[in-house]
Amino acid sequence: MPACNLLPVHVNITFKMRIVRFSIGKRSSYGILDGDRVESLTGTPFGRFEHTDHFHKLSEVKLLSPCTPSKIVALGLNYRSHAGEMKFDIPDEPLIFLKPSTAVVGPEDKIIPPPSSKRVDYEGELGVVIRDRTSHVSMPEAMSHVLGYTCFNDVTARDLQGKDKQWTRAKSFDTFAAIGPWIETEIDAGDLMLETYLNGEVKQRGRTSDLIFPIPRLISFISEVMTLLPGDVIATGTPEGVGPMKPDDTVEIKIERIGTLRNYLA
Fold it and tell me: What structural domains does the chain harbor?
């Protein structure tokens, strides 16, 4: 089968595509999830790829973070409800910060709290996955640079965030950027239900239509500041209801039409 390029997410593709990254033993690969089986791809969905005749049962593979971002550009205070609970004013422009690539973990992985923190919080978010090199794009152009969407947990050492008065340390520990379980390419992300569950109890519930700055605005704004690279993730902010996790807790980020990202606090 000839090599092909993934279509921009705003184009009406004719089938539902869920892109996964998975491992079997020591080998990792991109694939397409189709029900309970995964088709291996050669190449990368961020460039050219080829379909193969190799399929694996989903139960036989380990799902990894569906992309390997060079950086995660995250949004602070991008839901009005969250700005209210944190007692911050609504920002005039997107409030961005970075999380490093070394913080990334995938679905079912453990989140490891650092000894320096006494309070580690969940923050359920919609993640936007960038498909190609993106710099200085307008809002009308922005969506053509989106590969798809995923679930994201912006894990935060809340006590260190308050102590430092800035967010880098609190947001950047290893395992503090959980991404997954896959990239969903065929949705309109403008009005999706987002929920966070802690040990099966709902803690956060909001809709992406409540974002202060919508996705095209975020992409355009960020691309004026820094070049986004293929596989980079924009974490679009969290609704109200953030709170602490304890050892052995299970945290799930559920987003309508995408799926569920599940992790465990070590």
Answer: 4-63 (2.30.30), 71-265 (3.90.850.10)
Query: What are 261's two structure tokens?
Result: 């990202």
How far apart CA 160 and CA 153 sit, in angstroms, is: 18
CA 202 to chain centre: 19
Residue pair 31/55 in contact (Cβ under 8 Å)? The answer is no
> Burial code of 210-224, b = ≥16 C-beta within 10 A, e = fewer?
bbbbbbbebbbbbbe
Q: Which tens digit of pLDDT belongs to each residue from 217-230?
A: 999 999 999 999 99
pTM: 0.92
Instruction: Compute how many other C-beta atoms are within 10 angstroms of the C-beta atom of residue 105.
Output: 21
* pLDDT tens digits, one per residue of 113-136: 999 999 999 999 999 999 999 999
Q: Which amino acid is at 1?
A: M
